[in-house]
Amino acid sequence: MAKEIKELTPRSESYSQWYQDLVTKADLAENSAVRGCMVIKPYGYAIWEKMQQELDRRFKETGHVNAYFPLFIPKSYLSREADHVEGFAKECAVVTHYRLKNAPDGSGVIVDPEAKLEEELIVRPTSETIIWSTYKDWIQSYRDLPILCNQWANVVRWEMRTRLFLRTAEFLWQEGHTAHETEAEAVEEARKMLHVYADFAEKVLAVPVICGVKSETERFAGAIDTYTIEALMQDGKALQSGTSHFLGQNFAKAFDVQFLNKEGKREYVWATSWGVSTRLMGALIMSHSDDNGLVLPPTLAPLQVVVVPIYKTDENLKEIHDKIAPVLGECRKRGISIKFDDSNNKKPGWKFAEYELKGVPVRLAIGARDLEQGTVEVARRDTLTKETVPLEGICDHIEQLLKDIQENIYQKALNYREANTRTVETYEEFKTEIEKGGFILAHWDGTPETEARIKEETKATIRCIPLNGDPTPGVCMVTGKPSKCRVLFARAY
């Protein structure tokens, strides 16, 4: 394993290759036989499961319930909302036939031309259309509102350039779809879920994020407003890590979803949708990890503590196990995931390297001398430091250490973001600073033309208009026209 760790491409040499190496060597995921699709391996899926559990709990605490809607969407549904179809048309996978048959020449199987579908089906790229066609039957009056549904599912968007977790043709996600009586309720819902995502990102992923609203050019296809959480990766690029959309009445009108209000009048329902995906795995990796492997926050580590015994004989191993057994039991009672690695087919050094690569937050090593002295060696993955501490009270020490590691990982990422967030006044200054990476705060005149020019000339995009940004007006760095506030620019994934 030590040899494999050395094969990780250093971040300074190629951040992109380092990322690819780490995802595969840490057993998180691998490319599949299907172009652009990935296999999420057990260790990677265990992390995703913990993300799911934490998010699902937060959704249910805010009154949402889970449901499931079809994978296939009639093509005619997608065309009902003009902006929506324009936004997703180039990414759609389309089912045209429902049967295969043997080729006449015996060369294999072919699509049966007689088995053509009456209406072609789109493999779900997102579910607004199929869900709103369903909500039409669920909603008759204001008493049926609000509907607060979430779906855990997979989606397909036919990406041409893919990268594990960050952009794949098929990926896992959750998508909330809610229906409301008033515009104010829907806007409140969209903003509330944005802050649910931000809280999750910062307290669970230990990734600091900036909350904001997208520009018109960058918003979700079919939305009135798109709210976003934006994170900064270690290479200075931004990663959109979650979005929440205020959809207005667009989809209700497209599918004629009306309700009888309290005054007995019919009106269209107000809507939101919001989602995060396995892209969060990419955010987790790129925010914290180093040239030695993964660095995982304890909240998401499938294994939080590993104990590696140092022994020569089976008798030594039994003595160590008997001594450490109460520690294992007490940690588990406290909800700490801990493993005693007594496998005899790997040397301790190999184990140390393996658990370092996989980002296990805390490693304990105990040998004959530790038994005599009543001590244990404790290693932290986040700082790569070691200390010898008394075995007595070790569970209290571990519990506090896990909290310290979680906080330290977050603070390190926050310090990086703050050190790489800069304010500029002129376009020439912007062009110089954007080459250094990071977030740039600058004035913009609010026009799509200026936004497009900046993107074309610098490859930078408006990540968001920060919700808690400086509201001081100014002049656009490009055109000199009035600007309501500074917006957040970056190059992005």
- SS-based structural class? alpha+beta
The CATH class of the largest domain: Alpha Beta
Shape-level CATH architecture of the largest domain? 2-Layer Sandwich
Strand order of the largest sheet: 3-9-10-16-13-12-11-24-27-23-22
Helix percentage range = 25-40%
Cα-based radius of gyration, to the nearest Å = 26 Å
How many strands appear in the DSSP assignment? 27
The N- to C-terminal Cα distance equals 30 Å
Taking all residues together, what is the mean pLDDT? 96
User: How many domain regions?
Assistant: 3
Shape: globular
Which superfamily, in CATH terms, is the homologous superfamily of the largest domain? Bira Bifunctional Protein, Domain 2
The low-pLDDT segments are 1-5
Largest sheet: 11 strands, mixed
The percent range for strand residues is 25-35%
- Say what the CATH topology of the largest domain is: BirA Bifunctional Protein, domain 2
Q: Count of helices?
A: 15
Family: Belongs to the class-II aminoacyl-tRNA synthetase family. ProS type 3 subfamily.
Protein name: Proline--tRNA ligase
Function: Catalyzes the attachment of proline to tRNA(Pro) in a two-step reaction: proline is first activated by ATP to form Pro-AMP and then transferred to the acceptor end of tRNA(Pro).
GO molecular function: ATP binding; proline-tRNA ligase activity
